[in-house]
Amino acid sequence: MTARRSTMFLEKLRRTRARDLEELRLRRKYSSSQYYHTLPAVAKILVVAELTTDAALFLSSTLCQNTASWYGWVYPTGSLFTAALNMGLYLLFVLGLAEINPKPWVLTDVCLTVVEAVLMAVISILTMVQCSSNDTHHVILGPLGLVGAVLLMVSATASYIMYRRRDDEELPASSRVDGDSPPPPRKSFFI
């Protein structure tokens, strides 16, 4: 009976230890020194640059003729709001504010980024439908917004994959529990 209890205790300890190690690995991925050169971080910087450029192009060009009253403010507002929100999330991870408990922040990042991508796609399509001008300043805004939406989806996908991926790195010797790794091979006495 005591052997069974000790086996159950050791199994529970091993599972708890493995869960703690996975949490430690996740924290390392999102540490401030590691995050800034990952694919999600680069994608966020590209999104911010692209959407800010989109808004600047829209605001610097003249408005299309015969468009609805909302046309003049929806595209730049959506672009700048999305860029600001992505920059805030980027800074949250780079400054290490999400390092202690990254799970809710990563899930928030993924959900917000997907919603932003859908909204930017809708806004871009509405912009293309509303403005039927042949001027290149007006024609390019819709596709640029769709590029921003695709970059947002890439950012969300990269964040989710980075969060879910398990690294195949070697565990430190001090963190191993008996049974985590096979014992070293036996040496023969006959050689």
The gist of it:
With 191 residues, the chain is mainly α.
What can you tell me about this protein's structure?
With 191 residues, the protein is mainly α. It has a domain at 43-63 and 70-166. Helix content is 71%, strand content 0%. The protein contains seven helices and no strands. Helix 3 (39-60) packs antiparallel against helix 4 (71-94), helix 4 (71-94) runs antiparallel to helix 5 (102-130) and helix 5 (102-130) runs antiparallel to helix 7 (141-164).
Descriptive labels:
7 helices; elongated; 191 residues; 71% helix; mainly alpha
Task: Break the fold down into its secondary structure elements and pairings.
Blueprint: H1 2-29, H2 32-35, H3 39-60, H4 71-94, H5 102-130, H6 136-139, H7 141-164
| Strand coverage percent | under 5%
Task: Please provide the count of β strands.
Answer: 0
Radius of gyration: 25 Å
How much helix, percentage-wise, in residues? Answer: over 70%
Largest sheet: none
Unreliable stretches, pLDDT < 50, 5 or more residues? none
Number of helices: 7
SSE run: HHHHHHH
What gap, in angstroms, lies between the N and C termini?
Answer: 42 Å
Oligomer: single chain
Morphology call: elongated
